[in-house]
């Protein structure tokens, strides 16, 4: 019999699974690092860890680099992982097949197909070129320019804005980890460097019956952290074909009904569905994992609010209060001062305003600046 669960139970499950209700933790026990923490923008990966209780502001860049590594993985975006997990992560984020690789590299697949080059072979070729060029830390632009001189025309495109020929962007990013390259934290434009004591083999790790450790398996991690979900949700998160995800769907996934809609979760998590979300307020960064779920209407049903939260460009952060997204926020930094602009979606209570103020103070301390004020719209 299919279990019937409510939207409130789903939101509560995700908050607890992602540890958005805890006050303290460390890198080793932070669950979102299993799937990767997107590190986009000033309030990216480190802020995501901070609001889950990890004291990243107290650590130096060198100390953090011993525990964490930044690499381009899912959707070509930079993500933080535990450095100790990197070998299994590299296998887990590999395309499931050649067709999947073609889906993930977007328009770069067309010239490769015309030239009779398989997508996975192309990634191997790009990886070899990247590794040959990056023998010491090097900025992305220089790497791209040098790699372009080593590759044949099917790998390259003309960029009108730059008036130059470049490697296609997605093969560049998705081949970097295959090449054993990481991103130096805090660099913009990004600086690539070799990962010490890392021997990439370039072999797909997501094939049925593969050897990816359970904790790093991207499908299981999605269900564990963003479930209940459908194969289409997971495929959308990975930019992978739905069929490839269905072929690797966990055998211990059980079907549930979320307010009448079918979805799946891991059987071991079924007992963790409580009555509703925990009481907690968090200022989520624009690319926080909680906002990465592909069932966006479940998070924000109103189309106008969803458009404001997930615009094509310039995403704001989200105010999460007791499981619900209740508004957006944007930071404005001037020198050593920070102001936070908040746009609530309903008249905020005094308790909510106090909680937002506490979170804004936390953000300022995280950025090591002084909070100059909070501007609340309306």
3D architecture notes:
With 378 residues, this protein is of the alpha+beta class. It has a domain at 281-376: Aminopeptidase, CATH 3.40.630. 34% of the residues lie in helices and 21% in strands. It contains 15 helices and 16 strands. The chain has a 5-stranded mixed β-sheet, with helices on both faces. Helix 7 packs across helix 8 and helix 7 crosses helix 9. The protein is globular. The termini are far apart. The model is unreliable at 202-210 (pLDDT under 50).
**CATH topology of the domain at 281-376, anyone?**
Aminopeptidase
- Helix/sheet category: alpha+beta
Q: Radius of gyration, rounded?
A: 21 Å
Rough outline: globular
In the CATH hierarchy, what is the architecture of the domain at 281-376 at level 2?
3-Layer(aba) Sandwich
Q: What is the overall pLDDT average?
A: 92
Distance between the termini: 48 Å
Count, helices: 15
The residue ranges in which pLDDT falls below 50 over 5 or more consecutive positions are 202-210
Q: How much helicity do the residues have? A: 25-40%
Note the beta-strand portion.
15-25%
How are the strands of the largest sheet arranged? 12-13-14-15-16
Oligomer: single chain
CATH class identity of the domain at 281-376? Alpha Beta
Report the strand count: 16
**Biggest sheet statistics:** 5 strands, mixed
